[in-house]
Specification:
Layout (H helix, E strand, L loop, with lengths): L20 H13 L4 E11 L6 E6 L3 H14 L16 E6 L19 E4 L1 E2 L2 E6 L2 E6 L4 E2 L3
Antiparallel strand pairs: 1-2, 1-4, 2-3, 5-8, 6-7
Length: about 150
């Protein structure tokens, strides 16, 4: 992944109609602004998904504050946006470090190297647009930051 593409997904909205954009912004802003900042503790580097992996993740331990934010966003967006195929009842905070075509011998890739990461603090959220191209996906900021309560 390009450094400027690294991110922690809190909720994947998916494809929406341009006419729904302001409604989504006005719906998520008070939800995000009502949640407190949180700290995620680093767990490990892992392949994902566990069956037929095609990504390498920096995984963080499950976190109640993160989970509550995900649940709250899902609750308010459920009636507005198409069903989120990436929504999990037990969200696992992670950052995608690499994407690759599924390979049979993925276990030969050494992901056990130490990573100098202990925690990350979530103090704000951004609404990002993902743009696909032959070179891969890039992300573009689609709205001003939403800040969590301190």
């Amino acid at each position: 992944m390009r450094l400027n593409n690294l991110h922690l997904t809190i909720y994947f909205i998916g494809n929406i109609e341009a006419s729904d954009f302001d409604t989504i912004l006005n719906t998520i802003r008070p939800v995000i602004n009502s949640h407190k900042k949180s700290v995620l503790d680093f767990d490990k580097i892992s392949f994902a998904p566990s069956q037929n992996p095609k990504m390498i993740w920096a995984r963080f331990y499950k976190n109640d504050s993160f989970t509550r934010l995900v649940y709250s966003l899902h609750e308010v967006l459920n009636a507005i946006v198409p069903e989120d195929k990436f929504y999990y009842k037990e969200p696992l905070p992670h950052i995608t470090l690499a994407r690759f075509h599924p390979i049979k011998e993925f276990e030969k890739i050494n992901i056990g190297r130490p990573l100098n990461m202990q925690q990350i603090e979530i103090t704000a959220c951004e609404l990002m647009e993902s743009i696909s191209s032959p070179e891969g996906v890039t992300y573009k900021k689609a709205a001003a930051n939403f800040y969590l309560l301190q």
